[in-house]
Amino acid sequence: MVSVMAKGSLKSRSPVKSVRRWRLVRRVVQVLSLLLFLYLLVGTQQEGNTFIPHDLFFRINPLVGISGMIASRQWLTPLVLGGITLLLVLAVGRAWCGWICPLGTILDWTPARRLHRNQLDISPYWRQVKYLILFTILLTAILGSMTLLVLAPITMLFRTITSVFLPAFNSVVTTIETGLYHIGFLQPAIEWFDSLVRASLLTDQPFFWPNLVIALVFAGVLVLNAVRPRFWCRYLCPLGALLGFVSRSACVRYSVDEARCTACQRCTIVCPTGAINADKGFAASSAECTVCLDCVAACPTEAISFQRQLGLAAPQRYDPSRRQFFTSMGVAVAGAILLRAVPVLRKANTSLIRPPGTNEGQLLSECIRCSECVKVCPTGGLQPSLSAASWEGLWTPALIPRLGCCDYSCNSCGRVCPTGAIPNLSLLEKRQKVLGVACIDQERCIPWADGLDCIVCEEMCPMPQKAIQLEEAKVANYHGETTTVLRPTVIEDMCIGCGICEQQCPLDGEAAIRVYPVGNINS
Amino acid sequence: MELNRREFIRQMLAFGFSAATAGTMFSLLACNTEDITKTVPISPVSPSDTHLVVVRGESPTALVQTALRALGGIEQFVKRGNDVIIKPNICSAYHSYEYAATTNPEVVATLVQLCLGAGAKRVRVMDNSFAGTAVVAYNRSGIAEAVQQAGGEMELMSRMKFLETEIPEGRDIKKWRVYTDVLDADVLINVPIGKHHSLARLTLGMKNLLGVVVDRNKLHINLDQRIADLNSLVRPTLTLIDAVRILMNHGPTSGDLNDVKLANTVIASQDIVAADAYAATLFGLTGVDIPAVRAGAQMGLGTMDLGRVKVEEISL
């Protein structure tokens, strides 16, 4: 798009009008891209079908593709689409950031402090931070760890909306609805509204408190906008760093006609990423420029245009040096070793119940922490784990059966996983996978401890022959009378650890039957 | 589900602070302005005219049609313009109907057609599935497709519509949260499938009504009396027990076709206790063997003694 405009050269054909049109096009593209992102997010449901792949934004994300393939040592065909983004960037620069990235769009709309004339930027060297993050991501990926992908922008946005915004929205709306439903004449309106939003937006995701950390990280990214517009994109975003690196050899780049430039500094003020350097004759760093075209529109003398240029862009003071590359390599290696993120140093994690069919090591090396599986889990039991999975397992999915079990009629998490970290199993295969094994706490279990009937766990057990068996026992009840009661026992060989027994146990607080990872019981 | 509600309360505090305030205010307001507890229109059953129809044959559609004709026609129960709710057993999303964990779709669809034919304004079909989501359960059971083809609606039971309701005749439980539409409907048709259950022994008509309340797990202590208590509040106009396939073991979820027995029978009556008592005989039991049926008979909800009931058996 921009290249077409550049061929015609902005100056020859009513430039102001043409730029206004292109800026409008950019706005529209941004809105459409964000809407598409949200549509695909909402459409990621157990029974949902989106007309294009629901994980499109992860597939076209080259950072996810490159680090995913490095860490897993596998060719991940769906992620090859990221190449298209790289080609786009080679053609027109970091347009991804200014036109497509949904996080970038949200940051464009977030209130930001605009720079005043002559005000100095933060030391431009801070821009190196994003390159350091990028290098560290790639180097830890070589070591087999994907942990730092929590800093990738698309995964961050998806994770935040899925595990924070939607559950919060659900609870607020449900609370209001339930409150208002008692008022008779409002009932038809509430039912209409509920039927409108319930199936799509209000999934029964419970709010999982550790996800507040996810909310805080996201809030931090927004708040940093108050320091500089698009602070995240300028200084931190590893995807921005990758695309910036490539865009230094972009075909179409910012260009300023020094003969026309009056050094009015309007362009430096409007530039959302501070890419234009007044001290260098208002040249722009193509690694920082998001091709938003605001500068072209702001220039009173039409000195700025985007034109075809060949060769590498002029290096910037803050381009990462070889020394910094090696520094981040050292940091990555030391950090990964200290944190046992290297596969050979890993301790087997025995405290978590993982999604069906996953292998712990494979999960850590392939999971991009996108939370697609969390979004799709119909019971809300799958949650991003915070500390339980240790540092390197940050925000990898784990099942909290008391929140929600692994539904015997569902195989959605494997179906939606963009990298195959959770294997895509047929429902029949998935039903064979053992997640853990249930164990009864006889001190608390109603029939065992109180001599009263319950059998909810046995009733719920989805195994065709029931992995929970009941035996009749004669016991003395509270009143000293002898009664018979049905006591549950887990048949460990049959139990797949789906956890519906733990979820449905009628006790308040912790369940009297709990699922433990298999290793714990059998070793 | 219990946990979700508790989660809601916690979430209210942190996230929906304003919403919570508003909600609480409205709840308070509502308690002041409207008595939300209600007693229910009852379909009175006097033992003298209890009529029970048992039809045997191959075609589920024909079984249902014949049963209703024998009871005097669907018009006896459904009047023009009525709002009808049909409550099948769609407890789980695990298996298709062949596994006999969920009611036969043809049986449900035939009822929908009959009701619409009698001039019902609206026919809704619903259950509060406990295993898997209701959407998947509705689809996998085959009931969603059959009902929609017959012109009925599948309703997802919304949590806000379970209102705390007094159970005046209840002996153990005096109130519970019950789906308000089920109480408000002109006609409620109860369509359970006959299944094994390790505590209640069998899941039949009376126990099927556990699908219109929340917190069903908490009913399991003293289950039989609590089922009867609930039945004193929720009184279906008609109970039609699907015994085309019955589940002999490993209920209520099923999963092994060896546990399924083809009985090719439908039992229909306005007397839920009598219907359950008869259905028990298909499992080699009698009403007395089913504690909930005993409790129901004791409370006067119907007749357990089949000798005192007019039983009409039809073979197709």
- Main β-sheet description of chain A: 2 strands, antiparallel
Please name the CATH architecture of the largest domain in chain B: 3-Layer(aba) Sandwich
Q: Name the structural class of chain A.
A: mainly alpha
Strand order of the largest sheet of chain A: 1-4
CATH-defined superfamily of the largest domain in chain B:
LarA, N-terminal domain
Mean pLDDT of chain B: 88
Number of helices of chain A: 24
Structural class of chain B, by secondary structure, is: alpha/beta
Q: Examine the coordinates and then state which fold CATH places here, giving the name of the CATH topology of the largest domain in chain B.
A: Rossmann fold
Number of domains of chain A: 4
| Rounded Rg of chain B | 19 Å
The overall number of domains of chain B is 2
Morphology call of chain A: elongated
Q: Oligomeric status of the shown chains?
A: heterodimer
The number of strands of chain B is 12
For the residues shown, what is the average pLDDT of chain A? Answer: 85
Distance between the termini of chain A: 62 Å
Q: What low-confidence regions of chain B span 5 or more consecutive residues with pLDDT below 50? A: 25-47
